[in-house]
Amino acid sequence: MEFTALIVKSVILVSFLSSQGSSYYVNVNLAVMETHHMGNEIAAFDISFTAIKEHIIGDHEHSKPTDEMILDAGYPAENHDVVTDDGYILRLHRIPHDAGGTYNRTRPVVFLQHGLLSSSADWVVTGPGKALAFLLSDQGYDVWMGNYRGNTYSQQHVNQDIDKKTYWAFSWDEIAEQDLPTMLSHMMEVTGQDTFYYIGHSMGTLTYYTACNYHHWIQNATRLMVGYGAHTAVPHITSPVFKMLAYFANNLRWISDNFGVNKFLPSNWLIQWWASEVCTVEMISQRICGNVLFLVGGYNKNEMNNTMLPYLLGHVPAGTSVRNMLHYGQSVNTGAWAGYDCGSDQLNLRRWNSTRPPTYKYDVITAPVALFWAENDWLVVPEDEAALAEKLPNMVLNQRVDEDAYTHLDFLWGMHNVEKVYGPTMELMEKY
Fold first, then answer.
1. How far is CA 333 from the centre of its chain?
2. Among 133, 113, 115, which residue's Cα sits nearest to residue 123?
3. Running DSSP on this structure, what letter comes out for residue 142?
4. Alpha-carbon distance 292 to 357, whole Å?
5. Interstrand relation of 156-157 and 196-201 (parallel, antiparallel or unpaired)
6. What is the mean pLDDT of residues 220-228?
7. Distances, alpha carbon 78 to alpha carbons 56, 88, 185, 267, in Å
């Protein structure tokens, strides 16, 4: 038995190390300099940083940074770096006007926020005429795209000596309390606009609703909130990744051994097991069974342009913390929309000033909300979406995408999104 256990541990270690992938550098050119009460020197980060990408096609052609993809498409691109109160440096991308257009401070502002394990690249990677950011720019919007802490574009901190454990000790609580308001307030300051449209996918909706509990000005400034694959609590999730996280949520030793200690880095054997549970022949043939994001969100051959797959795999997964993934696991177990449970009364008192994490409220989400949901969504099943829709106080639309096989990731890259999702979204925005 001891010999077998040693072999298993050795295999896990080798798999874990081999899952790290290769690193590459993303150039950082700061468009906006920030001062900060923590005394940071932003200039220290104006050259480059190393971004680790797992299970991707690593050449530059398939993993160009968001701003470079925007410029290649003929649109203007801006990079804005901001700093949260707790010292995380976040990168925003902006398309200030359409191709061939000019700056105009009267253009309505729209903020696009990516979901779990994703980045701003989601909104541009499929190109002009298809990607939502370009469509909105063509319609006259000033388009901003956020990047949450820990992803490809937001992996720096003002404290250059911060240890990994401290850096990665966050979940969507801190993202909602710190990241989103910091980015939104910066966007409003730069544009001079006091209102905005908000479009979020996946965790980009969860963090908006949670941020409304911390910062009431957000819902007051929102002209319309549009949610793709929107959710708060997800007790009926079918994704094998989160079902396993939920099962082992209280076994932190096992989690750290197999999912990573700080940054979410699942071992190869886990990815292979998840793949064995859900992968179809089509998924195997497209070589996406090794990508954890597709194992989280599913795959739909009806909406996937196979020639785009190398580019999509070049940008996902974009990174997050183990704690953030565990927070989702807690939601599966409790069925609650609540703060991260630190695991003991003492730790919860330190984080929340209470022995229990807070339960978030729906009645503060007063902005008009439109929801688009999918029948075949592994992360947000129809039952959980319906529970959310019932609790929102100002829902103006709750629309099922007209395709039975439509999945969580199709909201980003689906070939028929212009007519099924993006077109209806822009028509609704004109009314607000």
1. 22
2. 133
3. E
4. 29
5. unpaired
6. 98
7. 26, 20, 17, 36
Taking CA atoms, 392 is separated from 264, 283, 386, in Å, by 31, 36, 10
Neighbouring CB atoms inside 10 A of 302's CB total 13
Q: Is the pLDDT of residue 343 over 50?
A: yes
What is the C-alpha separation between 253 and 235, in angstroms, rounded?
24
The model's pLDDT over 169-218, given as tens digits with 9 standing for 90+, comes to: 999 999 999 999 999 999 999 999 999 999 999 999 999 999 999 999 99
User: Collapsing DSSP states into helix, strand and coil, what is residue 94?
Assistant: strand
Tell me which H or E stretch contains 110.
strand 109-113
Question: 122-137 as b/e, with b when 16 or more CB fall inside 10 Å?
Answer: bbbbbebebbbbbbbb
**pLDDT, tens digit, for every residue of 50-61?**
232 333 345 677
Q: Which residue, chain included where needed, has tokens 């063509």?
A: 138
Structure tokens at 53: 């990408």
As given in the structure block, the two tokens for residue 214 are 């911390």
Greater confidence, 163 or 289?
163
Active-site positions read 202, 377, 408
Q: Within a 13 Å sphere around the CA of 275, how many CA atoms are in the beta-carbon half?
A: 20
